[in-house]
Structures are given as structure tokens and as C-alpha cells.
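#structure-requests
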Amino acid sequence: AVDALLLVSDGVSGVLTERRIAEILGSGFDPIDAVLSILEQIEAAGPPDDATAVLVDLTRTAHNGSLRRSA
């Protein structure tokens, strides 16, 4: 399982339900593909506003090693 933090604007949360977003995230996509899938679905639905989605994968360590996932 991937520990992640998803931040979205109202252009996403106002179009896709939490359940649909959870389905996308739980479908085994890597983080980049998951965000692209969310934004593609927003684009297809014709968002009423700008849509922004940022997904942070918390399971990876930082380049300098200062962030580590606890066991």
C-alpha cells in the first residue's frame, strides 16, 4: 500500500466524488498516472473552474535521506 497525501482544488472536489477519487487512487496506478487520470476525468466532465491535483507519495525517502518512513 502507498501512503499518500492528495490535495485538490474545488475544480476537482466539486466534480468528482470522494468515492470516485478513492477508486482511482486504489486502482493500482502509480502516483503520476493517478493524478493524470483524475485530471482527464475532470477535463471530460467540463470543470466549472480550474482543476488542480497534487499527490505526494509519502512512502519514498527524500533525496538527501532526511525524510524516512517509520516502520
